[in-house]
TrEMBL record, chains A, B:
Gene3D superfamilies: 3.40.50.1860. It catalyses: L-glutamate = D-glutamate. Pfam families: Asp_Glu_race. Belongs to the aspartate/glutamate racemases family. Keywords: Cell shape, Cell wall biogenesis/degradation, Isomerase, Peptidoglycan synthesis. It comes from Fodinisporobacter ferrooxydans. It is an enzyme of class 5 (isomerase). This is Glutamate racemase. The lineage of its organism: Bacteria, Bacillati, Bacillota, Bacilli, Bacillales. Pathway: Cell wall biogenesis; peptidoglycan biosynthesis. Substrate binds at residues 11-12, 43-44, 75-76, 186-187. Provides the (R)-glutamate required for cell wall biosynthesis. The active site is at 74 (proton donor/acceptor), 185 (proton donor/acceptor). Its EC number is 5.1.1.3.
């Protein structure tokens, strides 16, 4: 694998752009390929096997394009598909759950941690399992907030109605006396100011996007895959629907022009050259 | 390599115990072997080749005892010997400089970062090199603080004289308008309250011990080497001199009884079974 190959990332839609933003910030020498499954978004309430099938299709698409590292920039897809994609490809595959879990263990002083996410992520108990695998002593409480993703995907972050939904959905977890709250969905960092207001300044929010970009840096580093060439980057974004909306929102969030292309996964005749273990 | 093998750590003296403390906190299921080179401490003003020789002797000692991961818990030894030890052993070897650098890149908002360390660490420019390898856009300023290690090793942290030395040595870097300061020596977290007072609350301090334990967790995780057995741990500490002083200070810092043994590296007839590449 060449160190100047791109990093692949995917998400059910635009939420994973928070991870892209952090890769651009922390690893500005890396080139990325992003896939947003805007046709089938959201994943958060879907059947587990369906999410695994979607993740595999998208993983194959990106791996076929020669990515050196695959980031599942979606908590729901990480919770369901990480170990399957790790076995499927011979490049490193990381999700967003381990980085957020490790950050919570490192940052919590009181050992009382909260997690918010979609229904599938919370039902999978993936954060509590990962945290307890590393450190069984932490108290972990979680809360599904299924209405947060539509707020972000529909660009209604700053409305009063949205603020009321956030306050209502966090009411229960705010009484749990936690000192650390994992934003267990890549969409949620876009709501972080609203969430911080509800939780209060004593609760530190963990942005899994930020932590994931940092772990990508660690893994590329130990595998000698960091791109140290300062050549021009050609970042590329693929979506399964709604090119124009994706481009408009993405360009505003990332503050740069995006090269966005529509892909029909079912009819893409891609060569199957990756190694299936 | 077995996942229930211990993690090896070494330092010129007691400073590396800050990394041990973080491994205990973040990875309580792991067992550790620690070597403190108290006979030859401090390393900070020594010749580079001498430090490489010491690091290799200690690395061999720990690798011969079957550690699954070697942590150079000393900035000076990391700056001089990391790549040499990475080539020498077939287990993963990490230092404290990359984790601190990655944390600074992730945490700094203004992209203006300071580094304090020993003379050798600062002269090596290792932090600026590592930060710029990942992200050339950061401004990095560094300052040698050679008197901080003796303050910690001699247990004079809370004295007025020590506070004056810290204020004097940080006078220059405090005018640099940085928002993030890397404590580029494993001894310095023990002085963090004094350092924070001098730098002011707007400057976030990066404890490389905390960040290194977290990267150890990432690396053990992707290599499937996390210890998930909850059996009793037998942590072991080796020193090259001053067993009683090491035990006294170490037990106070770590809040637990330590099993400390004196080792004569020159006369230890250990089998040389590791693979030299």
């Amino acid at each position: 694998m060449m160190s100047n190959a791109p990093i692949g990332l995917f998400d059910s839609g635009i939420g994973g752009l928070t991870v892209v933003q952090e890769v651009f910030r922390q690893l500005p020498q890396e080139e990325i390929l992003y896939f947003g499954d805007t046709l089938r978004c959201p994943y958060g309430d879907r059947d587990k096997n369906e999410i695994i099938r979607f993740s595999t299709e998208i993983g194959d698409f990106l791996v076929n394009r020669g990515v050196k590292l695959l980031i599942i920039a979606c908590n729901t897809a990480t919770a369901t598909s990480l170990s399957i994609l790790q076995q499927r490809y011979d490049i490193p595959v990381i999700g967003v759950i381990s980085p957020g879990s490790r950050a919570a263990i490192s940052m919590s002083k009181t050992m009382r941690v909260g997690v918010i996410g979609t229904r599938v992520t919370v039902a999978s108990d993936a954060y509590a399992k990962e945290i307890h695998r590393l450190n069984p002593k932490l108290y972990v409480v979680s809360q599904a907030c299924p209405e947060f993703v539509p707020i972000v995907e529909n660009d209604r972050i700053e409305t009063e109605a949205s603020k009321r939904i956030v306050a209502r959905d966090l009411a229960s977890i705010s009484t749990e006396n936690i000192d650390t709250l994992i934003l267990g969905c890549t969409h949620y960092p876009l709501l972080k100011h609203v969430i911080q207001d509800v939780m209060g300044s004593r609760v530190q929010l963990i942005n899994s996007a930020e932590e994931t970009a940092r772990e990508a840096s660690t893994i590329l580093s130990i595998k000698n895959l960091l791109n140290e060439r300062r050549s021009e980057k050609r970042h590329k974004f693929f979506v399964s629907a709604n090119v124009d909306t994706f481009r408009m929102i993405g360009e505003r969030w990332l503050g740069r022009k995006l090269d966005v292309e529509l892909v029909d996964l079912f009819n893409s005749n891609q060569p199957r050259t990756f190694r299936v273990i």
